[in-house]
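Lab channel / #folding
Pinned by the channel admin:
"Please post every new chain as: sequence first, then the structure tokens as a reply. Keep commentary short and put observations after the output so the thread stays searchable."

First post following the new format, from NK:
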Amino acid sequence: MFTGIVETTGQIRHLARLGDAVRMRIARGAMTLDDVRLGDSIAVSGPCLTVVALAADTFDVDVSIETLARTTLGERKAGDAVNLEKALRLSDRLGGHLVSGHVDGVGVVAERETLADYVRFALEAPPELARYIAMKGSITVDGVSLTVNAVAGRRFDILTIPHTLSRTTLGGLASGARVNLEVDLLARYLERLLEHQEDNPGLSLEALAKAGFTPTRSS
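Reply from TO:
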């Protein structure tokens, strides 16, 4: 598990084909590797990947054919910057939200607008993910935990502060850029529960609304 609070940006140093998979060597940036061991998990611009080799300033991860196909990692090349976050420890602060590192799909930056020191991004989610995105809910974009500020159909807006823009790869995003999206875990579980209302007749949209949940609709 992760929090979506990116520790640093690293850089892809080398890519090597391993059959259908890819071994990726990543420079750690400002992130320390002293507490990282082989087999540990690191989120690389969203996807949770397993460390398979370690050096003083780099670590290697294997990216499976599934991850290459379902995320933007299959489009990355040597020299590209990536967001890095080590796995959450039970003693850590949860500054963002609970993030699994299992990317749900790829979205597209539809618009970038500068507002004083802030930047507003309008992003377009794949149709199958739109229903999980709610105003003032959480979403992960390229591994960064963000708050949804507006929703209209498949489009949603996020506001990024100067700190986020300078410490992550989001500052370099332009219209047309493809980004990894992970929706809030609670939305996934809530949908699953509602699918089985017959097994729990006490659970309904009306009951959830009384408890404070506000269902959203997407076109």
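NK: The helical segments are 65-70, 162-167, 185-195, 205-210.
TO: also worth noting, The longest strand covers residues 8-18.
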